Amino acid sequence: MSLTLFADSIANYVPLAKGERQLIEGLPHITRSVARRREAIRRGSTPEYLYVVLEGWAGRYGLRSDGSRRLTGFLLPGDFCGIHAVCHKPMDHAILAFTKCNFALVEQKYIDALVAEAPIIGQALWNAKLRDEIRLRTWLLNSDDSLRVYAHLICELHERQRLPAEGSSAFALPLTQEDIGDALGITAVHTNRIMRKLREAGLIAHKRGILTITDISNLREVAHFNPSP
Amino acid sequence: MSLTLFADSIANYVPLAKGERQLIEGLPHITRSVARRREAIRRGSTPEYLYVVLEGWAGRYGLRSDGSRRLTGFLLPGDFCGIHAVCHKPMDHAILAFTKCNFALVEQKYIDALVAEAPIIGQALWNAKLRDEIRLRTWLLNSDDSLRVYAHLICELHERQRLPAEGSSAFALPLTQEDIGDALGITAVHTNRIMRKLREAGLIAHKRGILTITDISNLREVAHFNPSP
DNA sequence: CGCCCTTTTGAAGAAAATCAAGGGCAGTGG
DNA sequence: CCACTGCCCTTGATTTTCTTCAAAAGGGCG
């Protein structure tokens, strides 16, 4: 339970020298555990730390006035959130732990010092934010076709876990159909029907929290998915 | 046709000292004019400059495989794009000029120098990017109700032009119903019907490219709009 | 076992897309 | 000056997609 995955995630954006990696892994931090289905960061709060996911799945979401929820992104181990602290702005959305999560909480001043010492890491943080933005744009772009947006979400989650893009691969997907629907912008009932289509097309299987992609290339076809755009 | 509006836009995020404002307005740049309905930046290209809108309306968009278009944001005078250059990443979307546009093209190195000299401006650029992200999340959040998302777009554009939030106000909206539909994720025909609802409710009027908001407070009610979130 | 949460399926209704046809208005050219 | 043309707006009718409401079936866990 260390910052190794965070360093890996940064290394995805920029090449890291050994010393730079050590700087990241040596960041002073405290850890915070958030129980399954609990809110990690509230909307409207101004987090004093950068939150790095060490373990578990979390997500960003907003609430509508009728109480319904919209997920706008997922946080996997190694991902971070709460960069709002940099801007001293309150969160426009909240962070929910889908599973029990462990976060590393890093004080802003240590991030500042890190970036001052290794500017390339600052660039990586920019890149990571831009990647978030790209994902949001992609969700919007695909939002006219729920089958496509669903297939695309699975491809996205598959790629973000750095699983092999050949043959079949399986991973834990700790989301209910309601969660997925909230991410796709459709109801749980409709999510179920969409899921069935993909299952009957022989592209995926989803049992007991394990999602198996049985035909990744056709799934990517359906999703119009471009690997790491 | 100077960088004054850009400085104003920056000043929206952080307080600017006189000297800092002069640094911005004195940024070396060339200008580029893009004709109405032409592409300013192509998807896949890696812009070598930061593009600042001096005059005109532009927008970000992506194309689907069936040729349909999705707008994911608007660029008004003072706004910038092409920050991708910072990351040496190709554009994941394209920029379209809705009207004839004039852009200021600023070389990356001058932005770097500016930020080095006045770090607070770097923070403002972050803030502006985060604002883009917030808008994307808001579009997603509202996307389940086309009347609300339409009303919200008008509120957004109204606020971004810093028009008074009382009484009625009018501004040039150089978009066709097809453009608006592409921004809302609905068809032009449906956009027309939604627009009629707002008109018949006495909230807006739209004639000859001029949009008049006749009842801003009720429009914001319908839109669930929060001023500058 | 019984309970709760989730998944699955059906049927009816609402929302939006699609298809199709007019209508208004500005610009162009005879 | 007027007819023509092209673009956009408007409206109607039909079909598809998605939601809503409802109910039953599965699965994990005390």
Q: What is the arithmetic mean of pLDDT of chain A?
A: 93
Cα end-to-end separation of chain A: 30 Å
Number of strands of chain A: 11
The spatial strand order of the largest sheet of chain A comes to: 1-8-3-6
Overall shape of chain A: globular
Poorly predicted residue ranges of chain A: none
Number of helices of chain A: 9
Largest interface: A-B, 34 and 34 residues
Question: Level of helix content of chain A?
Answer: 40-55%
Largest sheet of chain A: 4 strands, antiparallel
Assembly category: homodimer
Structural class of chain A: alpha+beta
Radius of gyration of chain A: 18 Å
How large is the share of residues in beta strands of chain A?
Answer: 15-25%
What string, H for helix and E for strand, traces the elements of chain A in order? HHEEEEEEHEEHHHEHHEEH
Would you kindly provide a written description of the structure presented here, covering whatever features stand out?
- With 229 residues, the first copy, chain A, is of the alpha+beta class.
- Helix content of chain A is 43%, strand content 23%.
- Chain A has nine helices and eleven strands.
- Chain A has helices at residues 4-11, 18-25, 84-87, 108-117, 119-142, 146-160, 177-184, 188-200, 216-223; strands at residues 30-34, 39-41, 49-55, 58-63, 69-75, 80-81, 94-97, 101-107, 169-172, 204-207, 210-213.
- In chain A, the strands form three sheets. In chain A, strands 1-8-3-6 form a four-stranded antiparallel β-sheet. The first copy, chain A, has a four-stranded antiparallel β-sheet with strand order 2-7-4-5.
- In chain A, a hairpin with a 5-residue loop joins strand 4 (58-63) and strand 5 (69-75).
- In chain A, helix 4 (108-117) packs across helix 5 (119-142), helix 6 (146-160) packs across helix 8 and helix 7 crosses helix 8 (188-200).
- The longest helix of chain A is centred in the middle third of the chain and has 24 residues, at 119-142.
- Chain A is globular and about 50 Å long.
- Chain A starts with a helix and ends in a 6-residue tail after the last helix.
- The model of chain A has no long low-confidence stretch (mean pLDDT 93).
- The interface between A and B is medium-sized, with 34 and 34 residues.
- Chain A binds a DNA duplex (30 and 30 nucleotides) through residues 146, 176-178, 186-190, 192-193, 196, 208.
